UniProtKB/TrEMBL annotation:
Protein name: Deoxyribose-phosphate aldolase
Species of the source: Metallococcus carri
This enzyme's EC code(s): 4.1.2.4
Keyword Lyase among record annotations: yes
Origin organism lineage: Bacteria, Bacillati, Actinomycetota, Actinomycetes, Micrococcales
Gene name of the encoded protein: deoC
Entry similarity comment: Belongs to the DeoC/FbaB aldolase family. DeoC type 2 subfamily.
InterPro entries in UniProt: Aldolase_TIM, DeoC, DeoC/FbaB/LacD_aldolase
One GO term (biological process): deoxyribonucleotide catabolic process
Length: 309
C-alpha cells in the first residue's frame, strides 16, 4: 500500500512523524466523557456476555505450574458451573512452554491458546532468539502469538528495526494470528502510541495490544481510544480490519463496559466481537460472572461462589 518494505528508516520516520498529532487534553476528555455513559439492564446483560467472550484469560507468572494452567483452562471451559449458557472466554494466554498443557486441557472447546513470545516482557533479545521463541510456541499448538516490540529501538527512532522484526515474527507465525504488544506505558506520549500502532499495522499485525501487564501504567482508556482510532483509520485507508487488545489493570465489569462503549463509539459495531477485540485479564472474569448472576437472580453472590483465579 505504501511500499513500506522498500523505505529507509529516514523515510519511514518521516512518514510516521507526518501522522496527525494528538491533543492530549482532548483525548483524555473524550475518554472521560465516554466512561460516564450508562448502560441499561438489557444492554448490560448483552455487554457482560460480550465482555466474557472477549477475554484472553491469562497467567504469566514465573511460578506458573501445569496444574495452575489446567485449572485456568477448566475455568475457561466452564466459567459458571450453575449456568451452562455462560459464554466462554476467547483464549487462554500462557508462556510458550505451557502451550502444550493448555492445548491438551482445552481439547475441542473452541477456546484458543495464545502464547507470549519474543523475549516477553522485555523484548530484549536477538531476532534469532525471538523467531525461535515464536516457532516453539507455534510448534506446540499456539493459535495466537503475543509479541513485544523492541521499545528501546522504537524510542531511539529506529523504526525500521521494529518493522523488520514484526515482519519476521509474522512470517514465523504461519497460520497463527499475531498480536503486537506496544507496551504503551513506556512510550510516554499519545503521538508515540499512534506511531507505534501504525508501524505495527504496516508490518502485518493482526492485533495491536496495549501492554504486557508487567509495568504501570498498563491499559488506559485514552491510550485504547488512540489505538481504536488507528485501526478505524487503517481500515478506511486499506480495507483491512485489525483487532485491538487492552491488557493489564482491567479488573471490574464497570471497567470492561467503559471499554466496550469506547470501542463502539470510536471504531464501530464491526469491532464488537472476540475476532476484533480482546481483554487481556486474569481477574476480570470473576467480577463479570458475579454481575451476570446479579442480573439473573437479583442478588449478589459472594466471591467464593465463582471460581478462583
Amino acid at each position: 500500500m505504501l511500499g513500506v518494505s522498500a523505505l529507509t528508516n529516514k523515510a519511514l520516520t518521516s512518514w510516521l512523524h507526518g501522522l496527525p498529532g494528538i491533543d492530549a487534553v482532548g483525548c483524555e476528555g473524550r475518554a472521560a466523557a465516554l466512561s460516564t455513559r450508562s448502560i441499561k439492564t438489557d444492554a448490560k446483560a448483552w455487554a457482560i456476555d460480550t465482555a466474557i467472550s472477549m477475554i484472553d484469560l491469562t497467567t504469566l507468572e514465573g511460578a506458573d505450574t501445569p496444574g495452575k494452567v489446567r485449572a485456568l483452562c477448566a475455568k475457561a471451559v466452564t466459567p459458571d458451573p450453575v449456568d451452562p449458557t455462560t459464554p466462554r472466554p476467547a483464549a487462554i494466554c500462557v508462556y510458550n512452554d505451557l502451550v502444550g498443557i493448555a492445548r491438551e486441557a482445552l481439547g475441542d472447546s473452541g477456546i484458543h491458546v495464545a502464547a507470549v513470545a519474543t523475549a516477553f516482557p522485555s523484548g530484549r533479545a536477538s531476532l534469532e532468539v525471538k523467531l525461535a521463541d515464536t516457532q516453539d510456541a507455534v510448534d506446540l499448538g499456539a493459535d495466537e502469538i503475543d509479541m513485544v516490540i523492541d521499545r528501546g529501538a522504537f524510542l531511539a527512532g529506529d523504526y525500521r528495526t521494529v518493522f523488520d522484526q514484526i515482519v519476521a515474527v509474522k512470517e514465523a507465525c504461519g497460520e497463527a494470528h499475531l498480536k503486537v504488544i506496544l507496551e504503551t506505558g513506556e512510550l510516554a506520549t499519545y503521538d508515540n502510541v499512534r506511531r507505534a500502532s501504525w508501524l505495527a499495522m504496516l508490518a502485518g499485525a493482526d492485533f495491536i495490544k496495549t501492554s504486557t501487564g508487567k509495568i504501570s501504567p498498563a491499559a488506559t482508556l485514552p491510550v485504547t481510544l488512540v489505538m481504536l482510532e488507528a485501526v478505524r483509520d487503517w481500515r478506511d485507508l486499506t480495507g483491512v480490519q485489525i483487532g485491538v487488545k487492552p491488557a493489564g489493570g482491567i479488573k471490574t465489569t464497570k471497567d470492561a463496559l467503559k471499554y466496550l462503549v469506547t470501542l463502539n463509539e470510536i471504531a464501530g459495531e464491526d469491532w464488537l466481537t472476540p475476532q476484533w477485540f480482546r481483554f487481556g485479564a486474569s481477574s476480570l472474569l470473576g467480577d463479570l460472572l458475579q454481575q451476570r448472576r446479579k442480573l439473573a437472580t437479583g442478588v449478589y453472590t459472594g466471591s467464593r461462589d465463582v471460581t478462583i483465579d
